[in-house]
Amino acid sequence: MIVNIENREFFYETEKTVRIFLPFEKTEFNKEISNTQTRYLIVKLKEQNQNEICYIKLHIDEKTEELQIKLKGVLPKELEILKGVFLCFAKICGYVPPYGMLTGVRPTRLYSKTREKLGEENADKLFLNEYMVNKNKLSLLKTTADFLKITDGFNTKKSVSIYISVPFCPSRCSYCSFVSEQIGMAEHLIPQYVENLCEEIKITAEIVKEYNLEVKTLYLGGGTPTILSAEQLNKILSTAHKAFNFKNLLEVTVEAGRPDTITKEKLLSIKDFATRICINPQTMHNDVLEAIGRKHTVERFFEAFDLARSLNFKNINLDLIAGLKNDTVCKFTQSIQTAVKLNPEAVTVHSLSIKRAASLNKNAFYEFNQGLAAAEMVTNAYNILTKNNYNPYYLYRQSKTVGNLENIGYSKKGYEGLYNTYIMDETHSVLGIGAGAVTKLKDQNSFKIERVQNYKYPYEYISDFNEIIKRKDKIKEFYNAYNR
User: How far apart are CA 321 and CA 323, in angstroms?
Assistant: First the structure.
């Protein structure tokens, strides 16, 4: 799509608005529009009778919508313009997306801050009338905002969480863009990677002790940590246990995401450390698993789940994804129903988000009709899960998501994933360990966040490990200034 807009300050926001309706559309700014161009947007600002007028013309395939609005100053100028663009899209596409104009990753936090500033009644009016968020999604934001208030009560100025990255997978799923190495090409890196990881854990723990920080949660994620051997998993977790003193932690989560990597030996190796594990089927239909490149069957997932239960794991989360290739509303609803029958403590429902690096992005172009189907999927999931005592406790969104939807964590009471709420709300600092991990240092006084990024790829992490350790000095610099 070509976008011609006079004020360059709005390029970023305009592109985000286009993606609400056409999440995978490539946007080019201020190029000449030819007679053969099938998709374009024109935005012009002009003075008329001492008023500032915005003229908008949107053309998608064979449909055109034009709008002229007077900028009233009720909202900031860019929001008034984007609202006009949004309304043109909604008219052509024939629907208003459930989150209206909202494009940010953390709508719960936006609502929380707005409610704190304006009061609940005025915040609700702003979200409903100006941002055009529908009532169901507003209710969801209010529920997750209320849980954030509870988790904030566990937080202090010294609180931190720990993220440990294992960026290896048995294969790459077609929708995935995470930095992870397929095991066939990277298996030889794993022994040295584990050694370096344990060393970085110890050095990070020394910083935690030096500045008297309070570790609230620890998350071992990836990739797929359970691609490692039982001995390697035990080595990482036992090193972290000694370094960080798990007795004081509220939660330790281990991502055992791929059922085809789970064995009895591996589960036993993490059982003494993990308070919560994730086993992720993504769908309960083999044809969908095959279409997205997952190398396991639904039956293998059932075996892995039953094995974890037999070993007395008491907090298991399942992930499912709405909008996958070959899936339908009916099949996805069946997947949710099957998950509920297994009686896990938590279920996370993701909406398909395809990033630039994902292989599916090269072969598919999802438009707003797929968004409508995905919206029905997540609505059905909400209805089924809440009726079975699974309550939404955290929510976040990603760009290029089908239907401009969200990812929602549901759990039974008392089984919420605290790490999820802390990292998505940016409640406190998160210290990242391993390839691809990002340390986010939050100043609780100014609420500014500084980032310290490790190398993305395992081979870089291994070959230049001294640089990784050197970057830890930035954490010290932050806390030296923070503690003044």
Answer: 7
Evaluate whether residue 391 is within a structural domain. no
Per the listing, tokens 């009644």 go with 121
Place of tokens 């395809």: 354
| Residue 43 belongs to a domain | yes
Position 200 in a domain: yes
Please check whether residue 467 is in contact with residue 481, taking contact to mean a CB–CB distance below 8 angstroms: no
- Over residues 186-209, the pLDDT tens digits come to 889 999 999 999 999 999 999 999
> Is residue 174 in some structural domain?
yes
Residue 327 backbone phi and psi in degrees, to 5: -85, 155
Looking from the CA of 188 toward its CB, the CA atoms found within 13 Å total 2
Distance from C-alpha of 231 to C-alpha of 236, rounded to nearest angstrom: 9
Tell me the two tokens of residue 197.
């990881």
Q: What pTM does this model have?
A: 0.89
| pLDDT tens string 269-312 | 999 999 999 999 999 999 999 988 888 899 999 999 999 999 99
- Integer angstrom CA distances of residue 458 from 223, 302, 309, 358, 436: 11, 31, 33, 19, 8
